[in-house]
From TrEMBL:
<keyword id="KW-0238">DNA-binding</keyword>
<protein>
    <submittedName>
        <fullName>DNA-binding helix-turn-helix protein</fullName>
    </submittedName>
</protein>
<dbReference type="InterPro" id="IPR001387">
    <property type="entry name" value="Cro/C1-type_HTH"/>
</dbReference>
<feature type="domain" description="HTH cro/C1-type">
    <location>
        <begin position="11"/>
        <end position="67"/>
    </location>
</feature>
<dbReference type="GO" id="GO:0003677">
    <property type="term" value="F:DNA binding"/>
</dbReference>
<dbReference type="InterPro" id="IPR010982">
    <property type="entry name" value="Lambda_DNA-bd_dom_sf"/>
</dbReference>
<dbReference type="Pfam" id="PF01381">
    <property type="entry name" value="HTH_3"/>
</dbReference>
Length: 107
């Protein structure tokens, strides 16, 4: 099973477990465009951004860690090229969130 298929199944499973949440409803709960979720579910987006996955997790009232903690993904072996791409995306996301956090002015 491909990485993108595992994410599709995870989203669909969580929607069913949470009382049959529709993709439209999940998009609203996640503050994402429905087209973004549609593209993931249809397999058009094979490698969604970490920030998108984070928003989906929040829509399910989960942390990103909880969202990504399921047996199929835990047992998945990435190819070297695929792994480098994923690592780069995670590092870019963390750097972006660190920069925006340091720009925040607290009262």
């Amino acid at each position: 099973m491909e990485y993108s298929e595992m994410l599709i199944n995870r989203i669909k499973d969580l929607c069913r477990q949470r009382g049959g949440i529709t993709i439209h409803r999940l998009a609203k709960m996640s503050s994402l465009r429905q087209s973004t979720l549609d593209n993931i579910i249809r397999g058009n987006t094979k490698d969604p951004r970490v920030s998108t996955l984070h928003r989906i997790a929040l829509g399910f009232n989960m942390t990103l860690t909880e969202f990504l903690d399921f047996p199929e993904l835990n047992d998945y072996a990435f190819d070297e090229d695929e792994e480098e791409s994923q690592s780069a995306a995670v590092l870019k996301y963390h750097k972006k969130t660190e920069n925006s956090a340091s720009d925040t002015v607290l009262p």
